[in-house]
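Notes from the 1:1 (GR / supervisor)

We went over the backlog. Supervisor wanted to see one worked example end to end before approving the batch request, so GR pasted a single chain during the call. The sequence is below; no edits were made to it. Supervisor asked that the structure be written out right there so they could see what the output format looks like.
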Amino acid sequence: MADVLIVDCVTGEVTTRPQTAEEIAAQEAAAQAAQAEADARAKAEADAQAAKSSAVSKLAKLGLTDEEIAALVG
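Structure output shown during the call:
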């Protein structure tokens, strides 16, 4: 369990206290949400790359050269 650091900017007093159950739960929920967002971002990126690869493959099957495909796809 991590401690909470409290700094009073007026007096300069520094105190620490253990995290409450609510703070721990909120931290864990935030970590789970961040992981879910990162997973979704990674999946979207992988899906976009797969779609691009599929499009390049289809363009090649149509007879376009690598240079023509690069000009279209980038």
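Supervisor's comment: The longest strand covers residues 3-7.
Batch request approved.
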